[in-house]
Design a protein that fits this description.
By secondary structure, the protein is α/β, with parallel strands linked by helices. The protein has three domains: 36 residues; 197 residues, D-Maltodextrin-Binding Protein, domain 2, CATH 3.40.190.10; 91 residues, Periplasmic binding protein-like II (D-Maltodextrin-Binding Protein, domain 2, 3-Layer(aba) Sandwich), CATH 3.40.190. Helices cover 46% and strands 21% of the residues. The protein contains 14 helices and twelve strands. A seven-stranded mixed beta sheet has the order 2-1-3-10-4-11-12, with helices on both faces. It has a five-stranded mixed beta sheet with strand order 7-6-8-5-9. Helix 5 crosses helix 13. The longest helix is centred in the first third of the chain and has 33 residues. The termini are far apart.
Length: 339
């Protein structure tokens, strides 16, 4: 009798454990579904401005925050932005000027954070053999530049500040990645470009053959993460993950400068010594400030004055092109502008 009773009690216990195990498996499956990684198509530019995104990709910080990134690399920000607007990527990174060009056409995109800034990465490189030893020597010379980019803005502002009329130089619009070749094959006497192209040129010519400006000087260039509004409206959590991952990447960079330079050198295909020089010209950090918005308006005035078709249009209100929601929830102290 006792044996039968003990057998029944054991059977009941086994059945209870089986049921508990079944529901436990079901619970964990549901929990796993909730923490499934978010896929994201990221457009990274092959410039020094994007180093935080490069590190976040290479060192797995995006993945650690619950993102599954599919990365496309582009030679500069305008192409990254165009691919965002065409629906090929979910996140683009770009300097102010291409944003301004698009802002006169559309308002379906938003900046969620700046990730880097610099006063030194835009430069003019001229051939001393063609008589260029100073800014004054640019008069009458052919200067290659990628149209409607931060390099184009930098060039024209520098000429303006040094009282060199635009009509006294010969602008030659080129693709940025062909700047080194444009100098070599004699199409231009000088180029205005953003890094890494000045560094590439400097690595290909003897120092005495080149005259190089010190950099932007008073012109700050900020690099931004940009998303389409339609995507952002339904993916605020993803935006927060992107910002957290980038901030962790920057914190890691601050502790591992040599490795950061080595990784950036490999991805950007730049000599490590030149990469170190480029790296030192940047300030890295997530945030948005008043200087960024002021710079946007100043560049918009320049862009509008360069095209008679735009003179009748009102300059956009650039605070409306910023969505700080994700930044305010992750790093609120990095938001410094009137909203």
């Amino acid at each position: 009798m006792n044996k039968s009773r003990n057998f029944l009690m054991a059977l009941v216990a086994l059945i209870s454990l089986a049921i508990a195990g079944y529901f436990a498996v079901g619970y964990f499956k549901k929990s796993d579904a909730k923490t499934m990684d978010d896929p994201m198509r990221i457009g990274i530019t092959l410039t020094g401005d994007s180093i935080p995104a490069i590190i976040a990709t290479e060192k797995g910080f995006f993945k650690a925050e619950g993102l599954t990134p599919t990365v496309s690399y582009y030679p500069y920000g305008a192409i990254s932005l165009n691919n965002l607007l065409d629906g090929n990527v979910d996140l683009a990174m770009v300097a102010e000027t291409p944003l301004i060009v698009q802002s006169f056409k559309r308002n379906d995109f938003a900046v969620i954070a700046n990730i880097s800034s610099t006063y030194q990465s835009r430069k003019i490189v001229g051939l001393t053999g063609n008589g260029i030893h100073s800014l004054e020597d640019l008069r009458g010379k052919r200067i290659g530049v990628l149209r409607n980019t931060s390099a184009h803005y930098f060039l024209e502002i520098l000429l303006q500040e040094n009282r060199i009329p635009l009509k006294e130089i010969r602008l030659v619009f080129i693709k940025e990645d062909e700047a080194p070749l444009a100098l070599k094959d004699g199409r231009v006497d000088a180029i205005a470009a953003f890094e890494p192209y000045p560094a590439i040129i400097q690595s290909q010519w003897p120092p005495g053959d080149l005259w190089v400006t010190d950099g932007d000087g008073r012109v700050r260039t900020a690099f931004s993460y940009v998303l389409k509004r339609e995507y952002l409206n339904t993916h605020q959590e993803v935006a927060k993950k992107v910002i957290k991952a980038t901030n962790k990447a920057i914190e890691w960079m601050n502790l591992h400068e040599d490795e950061t330079i080595a990784i950036s050198s490999r991805v950007l295909k730049i000599d490590p010594k030149l990469m170190k020089q480029i790296y030192s010209s940047y300030a890295f950090g997530v945030g948005i400030d008043e200087v960024f918005l002021l710079g946007m308006r100043q560049q918009a005035q320049w862009y509008q004055s360069s095209d008679p078709k735009l003179t009748e249009l009102k300059i956009p209100r650039y605070v409306d092109y910023v969505d700080p929601a994700a930044l305010l929830e992750t790093f609120p102290r990095t938001v410094h502008y009137a909203r």
